[in-house]
UniProtKB/TrEMBL annotation:
<keyword id="KW-0347">Helicase</keyword>
<dbReference type="GO" id="GO:0004386">
    <property type="term" value="F:helicase activity"/>
</dbReference>
<protein>
    <submittedName>
        <fullName>ATP-dependent DNA helicase RecG</fullName>
    </submittedName>
</protein>
<dbReference type="InterPro" id="IPR047112">
    <property type="entry name" value="RecG/Mfd"/>
</dbReference>
<keyword id="KW-0227">DNA damage</keyword>
<feature type="domain" description="Helicase ATP-binding">
    <location>
        <begin position="288"/>
        <end position="453"/>
    </location>
</feature>
<keyword id="KW-0378">Hydrolase</keyword>
<dbReference type="InterPro" id="IPR011545">
    <property type="entry name" value="DEAD/DEAH_box_helicase_dom"/>
</dbReference>
<dbReference type="Pfam" id="PF00270">
    <property type="entry name" value="DEAD"/>
</dbReference>
<keyword id="KW-0238">DNA-binding</keyword>
<dbReference type="InterPro" id="IPR001650">
    <property type="entry name" value="Helicase_C-like"/>
</dbReference>
<keyword id="KW-0067">ATP-binding</keyword>
<dbReference type="Pfam" id="PF00271">
    <property type="entry name" value="Helicase_C"/>
</dbReference>
<dbReference type="InterPro" id="IPR033454">
    <property type="entry name" value="RecG_wedge"/>
</dbReference>
<feature type="domain" description="Helicase C-terminal">
    <location>
        <begin position="486"/>
        <end position="585"/>
    </location>
</feature>
<dbReference type="InterPro" id="IPR012340">
    <property type="entry name" value="NA-bd_OB-fold"/>
</dbReference>
<keyword id="KW-0234">DNA repair</keyword>
Length: 585
């Protein structure tokens, strides 16, 4: 019995899908007829009309038709077959570098030819190189033009566009012939409410759009049939995250009420008061940790808004309740910064703060692991090293992750699994300084509750961001000189187009030498990703202590370097960075 659902019909059952074609389809992730239907075109070609030769322009990708006036083999640097066609409005040359004797015979003077290709400027006027073509029989009815735009699909080596179109034609035919061939998961009421077409209608339209529709409109995000598929994909993604959230909430978590003694002691020792926004977020976090369901909360706040204090107060709530708290950061520089802050705040309260990172070796590492496993270390700060198999916690009640976007979901879950104790999962607090619009937060972080610290401490002046042309580099260098001579410090960040750490580091080294020549009176340091951790830490320590005026760096410093005296940052070629990276810097 033939299965009705297209996700159960293998591509191997289609005409023309031999073992080699099936293997190449699998390279693209295409296994079933349903997969073919959701393998959408990248772009389209218009083969629905003939373009007069007299109106051709370089760059046009068009269908042409004309009588062959002359066809000759030209011998030069590269032997080629040239075929000139005319249609009464103009002339076009068709050039073939690779041709057979049969082609040479077929392309003779007087024959009517129809071809498709890209028009370019040749040595003797406009030409097409290796166009697709067909010789039309003068005594036969004219060949019909395509009634729809021709789809161009994402492909792989050995899988031609013609073969992909042949397979998708069969898939589309099955879609139209079979009842309930595809399950449309979006309820009809929701489709009506958002004025969306059916799934079948959207797929048929996008694979074979009617003649006369512009590519710009077809590929636009506002195109209604494309919006139908986008709606379904976002809805499926959102529902998946909600399902994950529901599964997470079914797991028990320890109720971390605490007696507030440590939190009050920390607040009393701080040389500043919390802002209203910090107090609100601290309260939201505390209420979550008071529940038996695991907290999953994202705290978003700009640099300097005080997220670290919020994290420290959450950690103390866990410690007051007899549990450990762990804070993980994506880089050793940032993790070390958090370790120093936590040590400064918590050790006067009688708490041991442990440190764990890849650079910690030998006896020091063993001592740290023992302190974590025994529960002697109540608060732990570290990097990805916290995932490693030899790390075990005594009673982990809270996991804090800084710069969530730098970690995968699986890494976040791995740390939670390490904290499972007697069937209970630790609470999770995620922190980021990257501004996330509410709609994006709902899409990307639907499994998290969101808190926003939308208030900076008093006395902070707004940051000025200015784009300056590279031709004014000398003026920028003078600005850096002025700031540093006035007692401030500055960053100079180098970026590269190539995804190559080696090239980026070479660029940073070259920039350092140039700046040393231009600014001989300043002490200039360099930090990049290929330096040893100890070397990076030493340079950062010098900069933080004020021994360096200017720090040249790659984007290795992107995450969380706390040097209050630095007042200027130069970012070369900022267009090469994403918005999140720029904001982090």
């Amino acid at each position: 019995m033939t299965p009705a659902s297209l996700d159960q019909i293998e591509i191997a059952l289609l005409k023309g899908a031999g073992p080699a074609v099936v293997e190449r389809c699998e390279r693209l992730g295409l296994h079933s007829v349903q997969d073919l239907l959701f393998h959408l075109p990248l772009r389209y070609q218009d083969r629905t009309r003939i373009t007069p030769l007299g109106s051709l322009r370089p760059g046009d990708e068009v269908m042409v038709e004309g009588y062959i006036r002359v066809a000759d083999i030209i011998k030069g640097k590269r032997r080629s077959l040239l075929c000139k066609i005319q249609d009464g409005s103009g002339t076009l040359t068709l050039r073939f570098f690779h041709f057979s004797q049969a082609q040479r015979v077929a392309l003779r003077s007087g024959e009517l030819l129809r071809g498709f290709g890209e028009v370019r400027v040749g040595p003797n006027g406009l030409e097409m190189v290796h166009p697709e073509y067909k010789v039309l029989q003068a005594d036969s009815p004219p060949a019909d033009l395509s009634q729809a735009l021709t789809a161009i699909y994402p492909a792989t080596e050995g899988l031609t566009q013609a073969r992909l179109r042949q397979l998708s034609d069969q898939a589309l035919s099955m879609l139209q012939r079979r009842e309930n061939a595809l399950t449309d998961w979006v309820p009809a009421e929701l489709l009506r409410q958002h004025r969306l077409c059916s799934l079948e209608e959207a797929l048929l339209y996008l694979h074979r759009p009617p003649a006369g529709i512009s590519q710009e409109r077809l590929l636009s995000t506002t195109e209604p049939h494309r919006q139908r598929l986008v709606f379904e994909e976002l809805l499926a993604h959102h529902l998946s995250l909600i399902k994950l959230r529901q599964q997470a909430l079914r797991i028990d978590a320890p109720v971390l009420t605490g007696d507030q003694s440590l939190r009050q002691a920390l607040l009393a020792s701080l040389p500043f008061s919390l802002t209203n926004a910090q107090q609100r977020v601290v309260q939201e976090v505390a209420e979550d940790m008071n529940k038996s369901a695991p907290m999953l909360r994202l705290v978003q706040g700009d640099v300097g808004s005080g997220k670290t204090v919020v994290a420290a107060l959450a950690a103390l709530q866990a410690v007051e309740s007899g549990f450990q708290a762990v804070m993980m950061a994506p880089t050793e520089i940032l993790a070390e910064q958090h370790f120093h802050n936590f040590s400064r705040w918590l050790e006067p309260l009688g708490l041991k703060v442990a440190w764990l990172a890849g650079k910690l070796k030998g006896k020091a590492r063993q001592q740290s692991l023992e302190a974590i496993a025994s529960g002697e270390a109540r608060v732990i700060v570290g990097t990805h090293a916290l995932f490693q198999d030899d790390v075990s916690f005594a009673h982990l009640g809270l996991v804090i992750i800084d710069e969530q976007h730098r970690f995968g979901v699986h890494q976040r879950l791995a740390l939670r699994e390490k904290g499972m104790h007697q069937g209970k999962a630790p609470h999770q607090l995620i922190m980021t300084a990257t501004p996330i619009p509410r709609t994006l937060a709902m899409v990307a972080y639907a499994d998290l509750d969101c808190s926003v610290i939308d208030e900076l401490p008093p006395g902070r002046t707004p940051i000025q961001t200015v784009v300056i042309a590279d031709q004014r580099r000398d003026a920028v260098i003078e600005r850096v000189r002025g700031a540093c001579m006035a007692g401030r410090q500055a960053y100079w960040v180098c970026t590269l187009i190539e995804e190559s750490e080696v090239l980026e580091c070479q660029a940073a080294e070259a920039t350092t030498e140039q700046l040393k020549e231009a600014l001989p009176e300043l002490k200039i340091g360099l930090v990049h990703g290929r330096m040893k951790a100890t070397e990076k830490a030493a340079v950062m320590a010098e900069f933080k202590a004020g021994d360096l005026h200017l720090l040249v760096a790659t984007t290795v410093i992107e995450v969380g370097v706390d040097v209050p005296n630095a007042s200027v940052m130069i970012i070369e070629n900022p267009e090469r960075l994403g918005l999140a990276q720029l904001h982090q810097l």
